[in-house]
Model the fold of this input.
Amino acid sequence: MIARPMIAVLEREVLKLLRQRGRLLSAMVRPMLWLLVIGAGLGAVQGKLGDLSYQAFLVPGVLGMTLLFGGMLAALSTVYDKESGVMRMLVIAPIEHYWIVLAKALGATLSALVQALMLLVLLGMLGYLSPQVSIPLLAVGLLGTALACASLGMLVAAWSRTLDNFATMMNLVIFPVFFLSGSLYPVQQLPSALRFVATLNPYTHGVDILKHAATAGPTVAFGADFDVGLDLAVVIGFSAAALAVAAARFSRDTANEPLVHRLARKQGD
Amino acid sequence: MTDVAIRADRLTKRYGDTLAVVGVDLAIPRGQFFGLLGPNGAGKTSTIHMLSTLIRPTSGEACVAGYSVHTQKLAVRRSIGVVFQDPALDRTLSVAENLRFAGLLNDLSCSEIKRRSTELLELFGLSEKRDHPVASLSGGMRRTLDIARGVIHQPQILFLDEPTIGLDLPNRRAIWRYVTGLRARLGITVFLTTHYLEEAADCDEVAFLSSGRIVRSGHPRALIEQLGRYIVEVETDNPAELAEQFAPRLGAALIEVDCVQFRCNKEPAELVSLQGELAVSARAVRWRRPNLNDVFLWVNQTGTSQKRAA
Done:
């Protein structure tokens, strides 16, 4: 019933990702720049964070970054779909309209995961993955973070009418979410106001699971900031809430004044 | 399954203060080729969107393929194919991938999609373009593919919203060949809106929509016959004066800039003498058989004068 439409959306997302070489390349270059350049630069200033080098500390953060950018951008492509013909195909399909939001969110999650896995391979080849990494925890962290980022993207996409404000979205949503998280620094050491915001940021908790995974072996002074159970609860709770709101908003939108109609009327009728 | 494919009772859509569609009644039998005609903004697209469950009617009821557009939206959408004014295709995917996407959305199995795609692409002359991206297709091919996309799940009813708009004549003819082929093959009910009235001449029934209301409906030939045997066109410098002068004998005129048109049921012999009289104050006088365009113009003329009276 819903399985095939779901496959259709997921398949298209992956096809699009694999065809956009530039997007894939930048998804690899961006985290590597942070890790190799910023990581090395700041690491030289700061020395070690406990017994962990700053670069090693950054590994979960750059994985999270790939998921954040990959998931958000894929989810925000829904705004582009609204303006193109794809949304017309989706709204006329015999599926409830909230499925469109859920399918797109899963598609964005998948797209983010593919990018993160590619980065993992790259990190492994460069020797940035310690052998103590907990694979199950890493898998949970990647999946949870990807889903949370995709859900956040869908929430934003449900409220945006055009692509004109895409750059705005980048600056007002993606960058703050990234910088106000534990990706680049341990949350516990932040000034209290920043620490408060970072703690509320669901993405912080996604990255925190990845930190748990990366430092699963010996105890590390500046590894994870929160309890892994809390992290999981926040990530799952946020995703569910964001998707519910986005789906409700989207269904209401299509029922009252669907995009197809608005677009058709642009031409005069 | 009823014999009525589409039924509408007092279907109405209001946007704020604007009434887009007002009390539209329809009863379209299965297998019929139905044309909804009217100028821009008459409410044609709003009507299609209500019938295809994409917008909620403000009031009134409609049943499509026997299902209510209010309470059985999914069943309605399963039974219909819609070709919108703007293409519903992904430009970045190939022709075959677009059909696969649409097929999966309609819950078709992969083997079914493959079989129907091959069949449709062959029927529509797109087999060679199978693996080309949609972005590389011409406008006509894109529209053709969009129709194939709209019928891949073999709907009982196909909505075509201005399917030939913006296309050149050969492409328009090709589109109609395909639609005719589909009707012959699948016995599909077709609900068409168009500006090109000559395309509606083949319809089993047409309805003229003006400011959201159906102002005239019937078989195209019957509507043309009702209009009169001939249309007499007179080009003149004083259209209003001429219209007034001949109104007692020829009835109300239709004035377009410097051209006055009369409907006329006289014998050809009488027309010749009339021509002589008209020629006194005219630059040119012509008489010809009416067509659907004339029905359209006269219907809208009465539509506007009625509105003025009210």
